[in-house]
Amino acid sequence: MPELPEVETIARGLAKRVTGDIVESVWLGQKKEPLKSPASEIAATLEHSRIAGVRRMGKHIVFDLEQDRVARALPSARSGQALPAKSRRPDRKGKGTVSTRVSSTPHAEADRACPDLAEGSVRPTQASTHAKAQWIVHLGMTGSLRVCEPQAEVVKHTHAILRLSSGRELRFVDPRRFGRLSVASAGNFDAAGIEPLEADLDRFLTLFHGRKTPIKSALLNQNLLRGVGNIYADESLFRAGLRPRRRASTITRDQLAKLLIAVKEVLKEAIALGGSSISDYVDADGAEGFFQLQHRVYGRESAPCLVCKTPVKRVVIAGRSSHYCPKCQK
Predict the structure, then answer these.
(1) Is the pLDDT of residue 211 over 60?
(2) pLDDT tens digits for 152-208?
(3) Residue 63: strand, helix, or coil
(4) CA-CA-CA-CA torsion for 203, 206, 211, 215, nearest 10 degrees?
(5) Could you give the angle at which helices 253-272 and 230-240 cross, rounded to 10 degrees?
(6) Burial letters for 127-143: b for 16+ Cβ neighbours within 10 Å, e otherwise?
(7) pLDDT tens-digit profile of 97-135?
(8) For the CA atoms of 47, 7, 286, 282, what is the dihedral angle to 10 degrees?
(9) Which position among 42, 234, 298, 314 has the lowest Cβ density within 10 Å, counted as fewest Cβ atoms?
(10) Separation of alpha carbons 258 and 208, rounded Å
(11) Between the CA atoms of 274, 3, 231 and 194, what dihedral angle is there, to the nearest 10 degrees?
(12) Helix or strand or coil: residue 204?
């Protein structure tokens, strides 16, 4: 699963490529798993919105949207799900796209000529609105966001396509469907936990005070610390000299201070190298990261420790693999 450095790298790349663009239309696939918000709400929030910025929040990619348009009321469909005026879907051959509704029924010629007055479309009211909203993307295990030319082949497992005013398309692809798409129409999305790169020592100390769970499990708890995952928890604990099974409550203030420094160093170094490409991770430009070449313990079971030459051990804690040096870490 992409962790903080990978998500940060992707968000920065997308910010450079799509900030200022306007979402002209939206197509959403028929698979329900990726949609955390209703399809109609996602489409209505995105369509005709300007992408004001893209940033990371924890392991989420947040698109800040500006909506300056005539207020729209969502129509009621017999199924109980509202339908946006216009969307797009891949054609059956997977090459190019054709205009449709979210319901996947083709537009009639009248719909193309006057989409806002077509059956099932949203109709403008007299009130004018200027609002801010957010599109939130969690990549899950295998999700990716790709900026494509419209003529590019629509690959299998594409679950969302945003047509942009620049002529390009922003596509969400996720083979395993653990990723999630949602919107915050009020622009008030906030991930749980604190941001590790912004945490001060006092705040960091309070996260682990009195906790009897292993320090590795505590680092992975997204309600405590945003974005730190398996790879960077292992690497941070190695630099701090702490074993992953060590109870959080037994770690001294000085040791936690060293751990905070290690967490920040590891994350910053990983971001600078574009993250770790362990499985199928690539950034917004399709490039792999390079921090995996700097791993000191993660994925190095039985290999000699780079410091003391002791073989690196692997254990399973709460269902997650953990790697550590039995000599360097106490």
Answers:
(1) yes
(2) 999 999 999 999 999 999 999 999 999 999 999 999 999 889 999 999 999 999 999
(3) strand
(4) 30
(5) 130
(6) eeeeebbbbbbbbbebb
(7) 333 344 333 233 333 333 443 444 444 444 445 679 999
(8) -140
(9) 314
(10) 14
(11) 120
(12) helix
Helix 4-18 to helix 253-272 angle (10° resolution) is 40
Distance CA 273, CA 280 (A): 16
Angle among Cα 69, 73, 77 to the nearest 5 degrees reads: 140
Q: Taking a C-beta distance cutoff of 8 angstroms, is the pair 301, 318 a contact?
A: no
- Do you know the residue count of the chain? 330
Token pair recorded at residue 251: 């770690």
Query: What tokens were used for 217?
Result: 């499990």
Distance CA 297, CA 235 (A): 6
**Residue 270, token pair as written in the block:** 């990983």
| Ramachandran class of 202: left when φ > 0, alpha when ψ lies in -120 to 50, beta otherwise | alpha
Do residues 83 and 77 lie in contact, with contact meaning Cβ atoms separated by under 8 Å?
Answer: yes
* Cβ atoms < 10 Å from Cβ of 303: 13
Q: Looking at per-residue confidence, does 81 or 44 come out higher?
A: 44
The number of angstroms, rounded, from the C-alpha of 263 to the middle of its chain's C-alpha atoms is 20
Q: What whole-number distance in Å separates Cα of residue 252 and Cα of residue 250? A: 6
Cβ partners under 8 Å of residue 37, min gap 6? 181, 182, 183
